[in-house]
Design brief:
The protein is built from four helices and no strands. It has 159 residues and is mostly helical. The mean pLDDT is 95. It binds protoporphyrin IX containing FE. Protoporphyrin IX containing FE binds next to helix 1, helix 2, helix 3 and helix 4.
Length: 159
């Protein structure tokens, strides 16, 4: 049964995969796969919730959005698990809370990226937030790894 530490590892991995996919979106020039401009391109994709997948850039951009939802859910569950640990690990649980607060902001910035027609400044901000979230969750995961390795089995927190 996965515990809080495993979920935090999973959250770090999920953000890594999502960010790598985001880099593929940028480098491949697929950022406009759901259209650009406010309204039809966000939160919808080409004006609808589930677009036609006959256009390759649409598939790539839509997967990025889909992965962001999945990643957000994994992070949310990981955060809840860290706060339910007994005894709670103070720094990792607070770091996870900080990261989960940044996720909706990051999703909003993603919407601004497409709404602005892929403004370089907003896309760079989106990239910086991704790095920040990944860094915060990686520090939390590392602290939990070290704690698990150093604590005697009987005193390890129960998640
Ligand atoms: C936690 C959620 C998200 C993370 C961690 C994330 C991460 C990233 C990363 C790392 C990139 C590559 C940036 C670069 O290489 O410069 C990217 C690109 C992009 N993301 Fe996200 N993203 C998230 C959510 C979203 C959402 C919800 C949208 C919805 C519109 C979105 C739209 C885009 C677009 C359009 C690009 C390509 C920008 C361009 O072509 O210049 N992202 N994302």
């Amino acid at each position: 049964m996965p515990n809080a530490r495993h979920w935090v590892y999973g959250a770090a991995l999920a953000i890594y995969v999502l960010s790598a996919w985001g880099a593929y979106v940028t480098l491949g020039g697929y950022g406009a796969g759901c259209g650009t401009g406010f309204g039809a391109s966000w939160p919808l994709c080409n004006g609808v919730l589930i677009p036609s997948f006959s256009h390759y850039p649409t598939i790539i951009e839509y997967i990025h959005r889909f992965l962001s939802v999945l990643t957000g859910l994994v992070m949310l569950y990981a955060t809840v698990k860290t706060w339910r640990m007994s005894p709670r690990l103070q720094l990792p649980s607070r770091l996870m809370l900080l990261a989960i607060v940044l996720v909706p902001i990051q999703v909003g910035i993603g919407g601004e990226v497409v709404g602005s027609g892929l403004s370089a400044l907003i896309a760079t901000t989106h990239f910086c937030f991704a790095i920040a979230i990944f860094g915060i969750v990686t520090v939390a995961a590392t602290l939990m790894y070290v704690d698990n390795k150093s604590a005697p089995a009987a005193t390890r927190p129960v998640a």
